[in-house]
# Entry
Amino acid sequence: MRYLTLVLLNLPVIILALANIVTQYKMNKITKHRFGYQILVWIIILIVIVSSFPVYNYIVGEPIFDSRELSLFDVVQTTAIVYLFYIVNDLRRRIEKNEKIVRDLHQELSIKLSRGGNGKN
# Structure
């Protein structure tokens, strides 16, 4: 039951991240390379969350979906880590966007200043 709770708590965050990445790609806000990298990262996170506990149980010799050893703290901790990863990734994207805007504004200001002191031409 705890394993199912773990998967159900993390699945919406991962689906939201994937939807955001696809939306950004469709709106041409990220490159094809970054799109592929981000999709790969979130798919790997999904695969690790879904398969790590059953694989561990299989290796140890327990029933695959036996979640006696999975505590509620483990579920909350894993969910918090995935959610924090989502937040950090989103903040990184926003910082890169702001840096691009500042860089473009600086370039435009430099062009205007080089044309004639006060920028009127």
About this structure: Residues 2-93 form one domain. The helical segments are 2-26, 32-60, 72-116. The chain has three helices and no strands. The first helix runs from residue 2 to 26.
